[in-house]
Amino acid sequence: MEVFLQTLVAGILKGGLYSLIGIGMTLIMGVMGIINLAHGQLMMVAMYVTFVCFHYLGIDPYLALFISAPLLFVLGMVIQKYTLNPLMEVESLLPENQVLMTVGIGMVLTEIARFVFGSDYRSLKTSYSSSAFYLGEISFSVALTAAFFLAVAFTVFMFWFLLKTDMGRSIRAVGQDKDAASLMGVNPRRITIITFGIGAALVAVAGTLLMPLYYLFPDIGGPFTRKAFVITILGGLGSTVGAIFGGVTLGLAESFGATYIGMAYDDMIGLLIFLLVLLFLPGGFKRLTKI
Amino acid sequence: MKKCALILGCLLPLMGLVHSGAFGADGLKVGVILPLTGKLAKFGEIEKRSFILAVDEINASGGVNGKRIDLVIEDTTGKPHVGRSAIEKLISRDKVLVVGGGYSSSVTWAAVAVAQQRQVPFLVNTGSADRITEQSWEYIFRLNPPVSEYPKALGSFISEIGDVKTAVILYENTLFGQSGSKKFSKQCADLGLKVVMEEGYEAGAVDFKPLLVKVKAKKPDFLYMISYVMDASLLMRQAKELNLNPRLFVGGAAGFTLPEFQKNAGDASDYVFSATLWTPSVPYPGAKAYYDKFAATYGCPTEYHGAEAYAAMYVMADALKRATSLTPKGLRDALATTDMMTAFGPVKFVAYDKKTQQNRLPTFLVQWLHGNLETVWPKDVATAKYVYPVPKWNER
Predict the structure, then answer these.
(1) Which residues contact A73 (CB under 8 A, 6 or more apart)?
(2) Does B389 touch chain A (CB under 8 A)?
(3) To the nearest whole angstrom, how far is the Cα of B131 from the nearest Cα of chain A?
(4) ipTM, 2 decimals?
(5) Residues B236, B207 contacting (CB under 8 angstroms)
(6) B58 with B315: CB under 8 angstroms?
């Protein structure tokens, strides 16, 4: 029973963080209709920002959120405005040009990080990095628990933002029908820029929250891009609620798989669920929730 | 765009010319494949720097029979299929005489098959899966001990302390990890230890707790882990979080002896034992000098992977010097009769058990004590007394 509960706790806590990574990607996907394959790399940039803040400026990772998120917001907007939007105008046989562009951007970010910081592994050692508290026999990592609740807070905030504010409504409008939105006076170009910024800022939050727990090197982005992709597909393209379900499902699947099947099959279990969803529930969890 | 290509086309051969220095046009080409990007880039870099350090020393002291050694280094990105094409390129395009490096077992395994097929000698210096030298391939040599022999010193240590009865083995699910774990569980049986759990994990995982919870439930005396450095750090940090208290934490070389392990795991690294092949304090001539020179040149410490690369370069240079003909075949014959001392220990390629052309070396046991890596076993080379049993987390 103890093993079961510990596995459940680990899965849900990790799932919270995964959701945050997934929401950023699904948002970009919903509005622009493209997969952002530089998502994990943007997270890597945010992690380096956090690392620099902590290591050189002595700023606690949780305060560094206020630096990394705005910084990535700006970086995301710049990427959209100067590299992705111009591609929309180019007539080409491949409508996937923007996707290819994101792959390129991901590589450039990785190599810049390697150039600046080298291939060394970095990690933050805060007082709470490896401390834990116990409820009965179940241990809760302090940093992971904090990350989970902050991730939930950001997710709730995102919901409020998308449902209640003008900007949020515009984003959803562009996601639903670009032409109709522009007829209603929404500038889709501006919205795509802002959406990419928000997506980048969200993954920056995830990266910063992960930093006290995990470690960092230039190539860390790839596996997280893949995770974000799986989460987005699980949840249904463009669905925020779906991304939360997707994230938690992936977290739980990895964690239960690790305990009851074998940790060697960590990735396989995640991808197996991915396949099952594609086969039996194409469209993802979105189909079940209708949001 | 066309203009750019043209200019680049003109510049590239020029850059090649600038590179060849004092010795005249054709040096002796030695190929090296290493993971210079990807998640193993850190180790690739240490080895690359050590190769270069050794080659510069050799060339500065007159090269080999008056000829310069030219290193041609290719990136494998740490993936077997890229490693395969890298070595193909070195052999067909660069026409190298001998190939070294390889780093991880998986990549090395893929690359040595090509070397054997194309009949170019390959001196393995890090890849340690046993089967690499168990194929009777006459073009493949190995400088480092195979992974099954990493815990040799550990065996005698466990017999000494005596009261360890049960063991858990965790290993990363790669060729290196699987090979090491299989051999170690056999060794446990010989030592009279009961292996109560043996499980792999996917390298690079965020959360090892599900695995460690299972370990905790088994209450082993002894936890043996075969991991690279960052998995090693996370394993120890999370073992601390979960208050997992075996009497003995032991790493099977690889990640546990690196300075990064201590830096990233922090105080969770204290009292962790590890098998190792080399430390700067080993009684071989040039070991300490290599360590100091590396630190002075690059401003960061090196470790056993670097020493392997450094020694491998000297072994290849020695073979180039003795080769009767400067062809891959000549090099192979020269390597086969190697008998020399290096900073990594004595090198002589022998056949034993199922292995051929394998160098035999003793291994050591080290322990992290107050942030320093001390050699603790065998006793005659120990720099500090070992601490056993490992104190419980809440009693530290």
Answers:
(1) A197, A198, A200, A201, A204
(2) no
(3) 21
(4) 0.76
(5) no
(6) no
Q: Where are the domains of chain A?
A: 2-289
Q: What is the pTM for the complete model shown?
A: 0.78
Q: Which residue of B has its CA nearest to A220?
A: B39
Place of tokens 């706790």: A9
Chain B residues lying within 8 Å of A118, measured CB to CB: 45
Distance from the Cα of A129 to chain B's closest Cα (Å) equals: 8
User: In a mutagenesis test of the A interface, which of B170, B202, B215, B231 is the best target, namely the one with the most A β-carbons within 10 Å?
Assistant: B202
Which residues of chain B from 120 to 179 reach within 8 Å of chain A, CB to CB?
Answer: 173
How would DSSP label each residue in A93-107? S-TTHHHHHHHHHHH
What DSSP designation does A236 have? -
State how far residue A166 is from chain B, nearest Cα, in angstroms.
38
3-class secondary structure per residue, B87-99: HHHHHHCCCCCEE
* Angle ∠(B221,B224,B229) on CA atoms, nearest 5: 140
Per-residue model confidence as pLDDT tens digits over B18-53: 344 445 557 899 999 999 988 888 889 999 999 999
Residue pair B250/B273 in contact (Cβ under 8 Å)? The answer is yes
**For position A91, what pLDDT does the model report?**
66
Each residue's pLDDT tens digit in chain A (291 positions)? Answer: 778 888 888 889 989 999 989 998 988 888 877 888 999 999 999 999 999 999 899 899 899 999 999 999 999 999 999 988 888 777 666 667 888 889 999 999 999 999 999 888 888 877 777 677 888 778 788 888 988 999 889 888 988 998 899 999 999 888 888 888 889 888 988 999 999 999 999 999 999 999 888 889 898 998 899 889 889 888 887 788 888 888 998 999 888 888 888 777 777 888 888 888 888 887 777 777 655
What is the CATH topology of the domain spanning A2-289?
ABC transporter involved in vitamin B12 uptake, BtuC (1.10.3470)
Sign of CA dihedral A256, A207, B254, B113: positive
Q: Is A214 on the interface with B (CB under 8 A)?
A: yes
Give the pLDDT of residue B139: 95
**Which residues between 258 and 277 in chain B have a beta carbon less than 8 angstroms from any beta carbon of chain A?**
260, 263-264, 266, 268
Contact between residue B344 and residue B336 where contact means Cβ atoms under 8 Å apart: no
Are the C-beta atoms of residues A183 and A177 closer than 8 Å to each other? no
Contact call for A263 and B230, based on CB within 8 A: no
DSSP-derived 3-state class of residue A157: helix
Contact B234 A215 (CB under 8 A): yes
User: What residues 13-52 of chain B have any CB closer than 8 A to a CB of chain A?
Assistant: 37-39, 41-42, 44-45
How far does CA A276 lie from the centroid of its chain? 22
Q: Which helix (H) or strand (E) holds A228?
A: helix A221-235
- Quote the CA–CA distance of B305 and B285 in Å, as a whole number: 17
User: Which residue segments constitute the domains of chain B, with CATH numbers given?
Assistant: 25-145+283-359 (3.40.50.2300), 149-276+363-395 (3.40.50.2300)
Nearest CB to A6 within list B202, B205, B213? B213
Task: Give the one of A125, A132, A256 whose C-beta lies nearest to B266's C-beta.
Answer: A125
A187 touches chain B (CB under 8 A): no
How many Å apart are CA A48 and CA A55, to the nearest integer?
10
